[in-house]
Design brief:
alpha+beta, 3-stranded antiparallel β-sheet, 32% helix
Length: 145
């Protein structure tokens, strides 16, 4: 007899577990649809980066200028033509990193062998990795937005 009671109790426990498991699945499914609709605008916002902010130091006058540049449009600053092709913010919140692909031309240089004085990736946290070498100007990447 006891064996029969244990089997019946085991079946009831399995039913209870199944009901609990099904309710858990239904609850997470309803929450997952709500979460996906609220996170969609954030993902779209990260992909729509239109501007880059840089700082330019004039080594002769020791003046710093801050510029907001449109992505994929050339901007003239003094004797430089600056074009930003891509910019990306890091996805980590604890240590933000901004990277951008920048091309810089010097108008005063008439050497046909050298098209750009700088053509490469720059990093906001360590600008010395990709060195922008110009006798008058230094460029630092600040942020993308």
């Amino acid at each position: 007899m006891q064996l029969k009671k244990n089997i019946i109790l085991g079946k009831n426990k399995i039913r209870i577990f199944c009901y609990f498991f099904l309710s858990l699945i239904l609850a997470t499914h309803s929450f997952s649809t709500d979460i996906s609709t609220t996170t969609t605008p954030k993902i779209l916002w990260k992909n729509n980066i239109n501007f880059v902010e840089i700082k330019i130091l004039d080594k002769i006058s020791s003046q710093t200028s801050q510029l907001s540049l449109n992505i994929e449009k050339e901007t003239k600053f003094e004797n430089l033509i600056i074009k930003v092709l891509k910019c990306k913010n890091s996805e980590f919140d604890d240590n933000p990193e901004v990277t951008a692909y920048i091309q810089v031309q010097d108008i005063t240089v008439k050497n046909n062998d050298q098209v750009f004085i700088f053509n490469g990736w720059t990093f906001s946290s360590s600008p010395s990795i990709a060195l922008f070498d110009h006798p008058v100007y230094d460029i630092w990447l600040t942020k993308c937005y």
